[in-house]
Amino acid sequence: MPDLMIEKRRDYDELAPGDRIRIHAVTVALKQGRAPAVENATNGHLVRVRHELSRRQVDVVLAGGLFNWMQRKFGRASTSRAPRHT
User: Fold this and answer.
1) Which of 24, 32, 57, 74 could covalently link to 53 via disulfide, CB atoms 3.0 to 4.6 Å apart?
2) Is 75 a residue whose pLDDT tops 90?
């Protein structure tokens, strides 16, 4: 999950300890180049957020991490091991 920053101080001030937060359609939003919709499920208020990820960072998140992204981009690494010297 990428870091999301709350855009408006008022939205931040309306959050309280114990509030339940829902983050909607993260994958879809990131693929479309926008931040996901965030809702304070306790009071129904929508919280405006943003992320500061580059396109490459978004691709890494969507791939499930750097290792997965590298495998998809550069192909799977050989699973064979180098011979051991005894």
Assistant:
1) 57
2) no
